[in-house]
Design goal:
By secondary structure, this protein is mainly alpha-helical. 46% of the residues lie in helices and 11% in strands. It has one domain. The chain contains six helices and four strands.
Length: 114
């Protein structure tokens, strides 16, 4: 019968300072940096608003969040046809002036796999 060291297992897999937590932090930094490169503006609030959270325990293990704290970030990411776009963008979209989605955050997720 094999015995498990639950304290060690929890440190390895569920502690933000453990190896899994450090790896998640490194991946979140890479995704955040890549999203800043892919952001559709050269500089400004949208680019500087790309952030990540420190790892925190959840029921399945650890979790980090990568995203933006800018209100219009989701509208830029999804384009004028989305429900998140401002009303003026949706009206322009209905008249044929389409603002295409610029999926800078979704496309940056590949940087976290490496």
């Amino acid at each position: 019968m094999a015995r498990t060291n639950r304290t060690l297992r929890n440190f390895l897999l569920r502690n933000p300072r453990g190896p899994v937590g450090r790896d998640l932090t490194a991946r979140a930094i890479r995704v955040t940096n890549r999203s800043k490169v892919l952001c559709p503006v050269d500089k400004g609030r949208l680019r500087s608003g790309q952030t990540y959270t420190d790892p925190r325990p959840v029921a399945q293990g650890l979790m980090v969040q990568v995203g933006s704290n800018i209100v219009y970030s989701l509208a830029v990411h999804e384009g004028s046809g989305s429900i998140y776009a401002p009303r003026s963008w949706r009206q322009a979209h209905a008249r044929g002036h389409v603002i295409p989605p610029r999926r800078f955050l979704t496309n940056a997720l590949a940087a976290g796999r490496g």
